[in-house]
Design brief:
Elements: H1 2-24, H2 28-36, H3 42-60, E1 63-66, H4 68-83, E2 95-99, H5 126-133, E3 137-142, E4 154-155, E5 159-160, H6 176-183, E6 189-194, H7 200-206, E7 209-212, E8 239-244, H8 247-257, E9 283-286, H9 297-312, E10 316-319, H10 326-341, H11 347-357, H12 365-371, H13 376-397, E11 402-406, E12 420-422, E13 425-427, E14 432-434, E15 437-439, H14 441-446, H15 450-454, E16 459-466, E17 472-478, H16 484-495
Parallel strand pairs: 2-3, 2-6, 9-10, 9-11
Antiparallel strand pairs: 1-3, 4-5, 6-8, 7-8, 7-16, 11-17, 12-13, 14-15, 16-17
Helix pairs in contact: 1-3, 3-4, 6-7, 8-16, 10-12, 10-13
């Protein structure tokens, strides 16, 4: 009798574990559908993710604030609404996480910055308003680099986020908490922002999908900045976007966050997608290197094999690069960020800081211009160059449906300590190694993402597979401005030819 009871109990526990694991790595789209249809309760889903966070987050440090009680309470309300035949929206009862520099009403928002350690906003960011209006439930905030200004995720309040495939390595930044939370089953859908690759790099390093929308199509209202800044100076370049474990979830998220709100009506609407796309009528341009910046041979080999597979399946494939002076693009990005992001820093202060930064940044054209004194004339020249580069990129994509290139010169690297700090800005003197070449930290991480920030292009980042070291290999797919949904459709087609894998905690 005792043996029978033990067997039944163990079987129950196994089924519970398997059931929970299925929830944890299920798509947000399917979870939403099953909740709406009453096949699973919102409470069951939210509880599964809360328990996963409580069990796993200590190893990875991806979630910096868990809204357990409020999330479970809201899940009960979502289930009651379903029982009364009320649907709140596309994400009814689905738990999500939000990067900790989006303002969340009544929920601490620190941006990983000590002066904001106890900051509790009295309003939501625009993107948060849209997600809540569609029935999403915020279960937590994700870790980021201080004020989102580094390509690793670490800050003096919450510490460092670890890579899900190897905790001795970086998750990327600044939305590293988002990507690690996805890859470890601590969230089904998450939202970050991107100025220099902050969605794309973590997605690539952690083996998940990320989407940088066309600039101006998603509201940036409610981004938490340094409290010394009375207004957010970044009026161009930066975007907000989703990260997920599949492209369908990116599409669902994009449908939600590209809507205007009553407090932000200036957004540019996206074009509708095409439904006649298939692998045999796709025209694909690709490269494994540009701008003279070397890329890890493992990444180059993976991209080459991948595009060969696409060609074999019927796609028209050409190795080609847009007519862009990439050095000029890096410099121009830096000039714009210097003027907009540093509007409240005088040229005199910048001049005083030059001896501390000039040597460390001599090989980094984008950051040289951030720290140098600027002027209105320099800014206007930079905007004119940006216009020219946008035109060159759009003309290039008149000939091709998509452009494929690396996300980063390297895969996830070992946690890399800064040499020193200048204000909130970390300075790195120690380079990263790429095929035995020593490459400056910021060139190694940002050289392949910044040009497509400048051209305002939509970018889908997706995994191609795993290296022999079991590290994810990511790739960028770049499309024409305002053709984000077409890019999503292309992504769905070409994603079927990438190598699939299970995440480290997935069973």
């Amino acid at each position: 009798m005792k043996k029978t009871f033990v067997f039944i109990f163990l079987t129950f526990l196994i089924h519970q574990t398997l059931g929970q694991n299925k929830i944890l790595f299920e798509s947000a789209s399917n979870l939403a559908k099953e909740i709406r249809e009453g096949k699973i309760s919102s409470y069951e889903v939210v509880l599964a993710y809360v328990e996963q966070i409580e069990q796993q987050n200590a190893n990875y440090n991806a979630i910096v604030l868990l809204e357990k009680e409020q999330a479970l309470k809201r899940a009960k309300e979502a289930d009651l609404a379903i029982a009364n035949h009320q649907i709140w929206g596309k994400l009814h009862g689905v738990p999500i996480t939000i990067k900790d520099n989006f303002k969340t009403k009544g929920i601490k928002t620190t941006a990983g910055y000590l002066p904001l350690e106890n900051n509790i906003p009295d309003e939501d960011a625009e993107i948060v308003k849209l997600l809540l209006a569609e029935g999403a439930i915020i279960i937590g905030k994700t870790n980021l680099s201080t004020l989102a200004m580094d390509m690793q995720t670490s800050n003096s309040i919450f510490g460092t986020t670890n890579n899900p495939w190897d905790t001795s390595r970086t998750s990327g930044g600044s939305s590293g908490g988002c990507a690690t939370a996805l890859a470890t089953g601590m969230t089904p859908l998450t939202f970050g922002n991107d100025l220099a690759g902050s969605i794309r790099i973590p997605a690539a390093y952690c083996g998940v999908y990320g989407f940088k929308p066309t600039f101006g199509t998603v509201s940036l209202g409610g981004i938490q900045t340094d409290p010394k800044e009375k207004t957010n100076g970044l009026k161009s370049l930066a975007v907000a976007g989703p990260l997920a474990r599949n492209i369908d979830d990116l599409e669902l998220a994009l449908q939600i966050i590209t809507q205007p709100t009553t407090t932000d009506q200036k957004l540019v609407p996206l074009n509708s997608s095409r439904d006649d796309l298939n692998i045999k009528n796709l025209k694909i341009a690709w490269t494994d290197e540009f701008g003279g910046v070397p890329v890890d041979n493992v990444i180059k080999d993976a991209i080459k094999k991948y595009v060969e597979k696409l060609e074999k399946e019927g796609a028209f494939v050409v190795k080609a690069v847009p007519a862009i002076n990439f050095y000029q693009a890096w410099e121009t990005w830096g000039s714009i960020v210097a003027t907009q992001g540093g509007y409240n820093t005088s040229n005199f202060i910048k001049w005083l800081g030059l001896p501390f930064t000039k040597g460390a940044l001599k090989e980094v054209p984008m950051h040289q211009n951030i720290v140098k004194p600027t002027s209105v004339e320099k800014y206007m020249k930079a905007l004119n160059i940006q216009d020219s580069l946008i035109t060159r990129m759009e003309n290039f994509l008149n000939e091709y449906d998509v452009f494929i290139c690396p996300v980063s010169t390297v895969m996830a690297f070992k946690h890399h300590a800064p040499s020193r700090q200048y204000g909130s800005f970390r300075i790195y003197n120690e380079p990263l190694t790429v095929n035995k070449n020593e490459i400056h930290y910021y060139m190694a991480t940002q050289a392949y993402t910044i040009p497509f920030t400048l051209t305002e292009s939509p970018v889908l980042t997706m995994p191609l597979g795993l290296s022999k070291e079991c590290l994810p290999i990511g790739v960028q797919l770049i499309g024409k401005r305002y053709e984000d949904f077409k890019l999503i459709e292309i992504g769905k087609i070409v994603d079927t030819y990438s190598e699939k894998f299970e995440f480290p905690l997935e069973e």
